[in-house]
Design goal:
Layout: H1 3-32, H2 53-62, H3 71-82, H4 102-108, H5 123-140, H6 148-158, H7 160-166, H8 173-186, H9 202-211, H10 233-242, H11 252-255, E1 272-275, E2 287-293, E3 296-299, E4 308-311, E5 317-321, H12 325-330
Helix pairs in contact: 1-9, 2-3, 2-5, 3-8, 5-6, 6-7, 6-8, 9-10
Amino acid sequence: MTVRKAWIVASAAAAVGLSLVMLLVVGVYMVAGNIVNGVGGGSVGLAKGAVPAAYAALVQKYGNSCPAINPALLAAQLYQESGFNPNAKSPAKAQGIAQFIPGTWATHGVDGDGDGDRDVWDPNDAIPSAAKYDCTLAAYVKNVPGDPTHNMLASYNAGAYAVIKYGGVPPYQETRNYVKTITTLAKSFAAPVTRVDPSKQAAGAIYFAQKKLGTPYLWGGNGTPDQGGRFDCSGLTKAAYESVGITLPRVANDQYNAGPHPSRDELLPGDLVFFSTDKTNSRAIDHVGIYVGGGYMIDAPFTGAVIRFDPIDTRKYFGATRVTEDGAKALPATV
């Protein structure tokens, strides 16, 4: 199909689908008052594929090591520290998937797999050690007023002495930001146990994407004038949410962690929908679109195609994210 013909087809689809899309978006706000807040009490499970399969069982097991942590929180810390990269190194000499510095590892590293050594580069040792370290910090500040998890995270960032001195999270902006970042990011690793709140910015993001229907795809496209206003899949979703004041990462698999994950039957217009050939690992995601309702999304599919409506129910469908402003802000700059 030529680009011109594709534009005509896409324009027709837009004209037919516009009223449906807007009705669906209006419906988001009509039902908002009846939807329960996100993750609630009870045992915290991990969202499907959010943690790479090689580490998911370890995170689920050791994330229940003490009341101050849970699997989603532990996952958020590992993602923040290394992006689940067991070979990660930092300029400060932090090492491995949990980014232990040598002195801390010497004190808190454990032989998690019982093979006779404590290897900071081995996730089988490093993940249990990260959980143990969290629980040790929680024990140090167990008598401090306030939320035990917040106090533990503050101790991780600023030291237990500062938490004890100030009777809770100390008044350091970096520490308060760290506590908010990890607790917010944890929501993107938790399997929801109730319905997820609708996105307040959904309508605006869809409106932006709708205006781009028929635009030719460009790999690496960000929609800039020098690129002829063209996008690739994650460039389109990033630009759509930037139009409503939310900054997403550039790459699709990083965008997956920008909020909680509604199930397929709970999708609402504005949700990001993701696709992959590997259903066990969100880091393998290779495509993203913006859900518009009725089983369809707007996406920039591939070279030679144009931005268009596509069905989401394919064999590659991975899952969805309901983007939140706090969720996007919590993502690390690089993973």
